[in-house]
Amino acid sequence: MNLPEHLALRLNASQLRHALRTAIAATITFALTLLLNLEQGYWAVFSSILVMQAHVGGSIAASWARLLGTASGALLGALSATAADAWLGAGVSGLGAAMFVTVFFCALLASQNENLRLAGLTAAVVICLHGVMGGSALEIGLWRFLEVGLGIVVALAVSLAWPSHARVVLRYGLGKGLTELSALLATLLETRLGGGYDAGRVFHRKDAVLRLLLRNRQLLSAALREPGTAAQGGELSTLLELEDRMAEHLLAMAHAVENAPPEGFHRHLSDELRELGEALEEAMTGLGRAVATKAPPPAAAAPRLGAALAAAGDKLLDLRRQRTIAVYDLDEVMHFYSFYHALREAARLVLAELWRRGGVEATAPRPPESAR
């Protein structure tokens, strides 16, 4: 297999689209700098490449950060170079003092506002060009801002003309997140009910969940900057919050399983726990597909999950009445209840989401109070 074929297999449509948009923005910007006869138009080309992100929301955020950093840096650099010329005279000592003071101040600003991290770089460029080329530092700073602004405008225009929306990718990411959470749940149930803790397998499942949650948070931040209704952003935020809470419960289950003895109180209701876990897996997987495709969740998921919650709760209540749990030591009881309560709360979250989305049969009763 040659290199082009290998690259084609590794790249997906989204990556190719982003590469094409970046190349188009850079080429258009380059042509405009030649048309406008900009002496240092390469700054505009650099800016168009740097601010072009995979999604419209990311491009808007990067554009704002670069524009703000460039404007503040150009202004501060020009003012400090002009002041150094007036007070200390033109020369290395004056520009050196201007460089030190300006970059120091810009670094302090950047520590307080991430959007200002380019201010120091722009200020240093303005001072250096003033020292090499001479001329008005204010004029150099103004041209630097205009060049960068040109690149930003072109990049945003290309992004909006050929958009790739973060909220679309996020919806698929949220669907994938529910699927990964379901896979982690299956691993934990197999570990607990099977009696053998596989640390490596559990770790990899947890790692996949946490990485995807982090990626989805980044996508949500970009999606909220894109044009759209408040309801769209609210729906995505609600789904991500659901997955965050689900992850908390499953991580609590993982902690309870890690140090629990293979044999314990859970064996008295292993059938009920298995059915609850499988019903929850089914509901999470179906909900994940529904989120990704904007389709209603499977109608049978909620009744099965509600019934499994009720059955597990009723069986545990019977065991407590029979004082079966009294023969187990406190450590085992604590491990069991940590596992069970986390599983139950995760099931309740998904059940509530299914009812909220209308993913139930019209004739199905709501789950009993013991399941809610």
TrEMBL record:
Q: For this UniProt entry, which segments traverse the membrane?
A: 20-38, 45-67, 87-111, 118-136, 142-162
Pull one GO CC term from this UniProt entry: plasma membrane
Q: Name one GO molecular function term.
A: transmembrane transporter activity
Topology with respect to the bilayer: Multi-pass membrane protein
Task: Tell me any Pfam family this protein matches.
Answer: FUSC
**Compartments it resides in:** Membrane
Q: What is its main location?
A: membrane
Task: Tell me where on the tree of life, at the top rank, the source sits.
Answer: Bacteria
Task: Write the record's keywords in alphabetical order, separated by commas.
Answer: Membrane, Transmembrane, Transmembrane helix
Query: Would I find Oxidoreductase among this entry's keywords?
Result: no
Decide whether keyword Kinase is in the record.
Answer: no
Protein name per Swiss-Prot or TrEMBL: Fusaric acid resistance protein family protein
Question: Which organism does this record belong to?
Answer: Humidesulfovibrio mexicanus
